[in-house]
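Message: A physicist's question: would you kindly supply an amino acid chain plus fold tokens?
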Amino acid sequence: MGWDFAQGATKKSTVQEILSNQILDGYVSRVVAQKTVKNNLWVVWEIDYPAGKKRVLSLYMLAKFSGCGAWGYKAIDESMGPYESNCPLQFLELATDGVNTAFRERVKDAGKVTL
């Protein structure tokens, strides 16, 4: 997946846009927890699938694009094994589905961010 950005978007408006999305994978979702760490927005989503609810962890890498001065993001879910390791440790407990063991071990080893 590539980067998404909108002309004139600020970092704050980009985060608000991401968090206001109530549909993920075509199903209703809600934010369970979210935290911005530097230019990484970490979100635990609860998705209401027909077979039941699942909680997944997503990373939204935030960046300001110099060509147009607008902020944008790149969405990465846990299954993709993000290389970033500044995820709040508590989020690993909240997100119980789509677990990537190698990624979680990297986050625990880094132990950088706590709520």
Observations:
- The beta strands are 4-5, 23-24, 27-37, 40-49, 52-65, 70-77.
- The helical segments are 11-20, 89-94, 101-110.
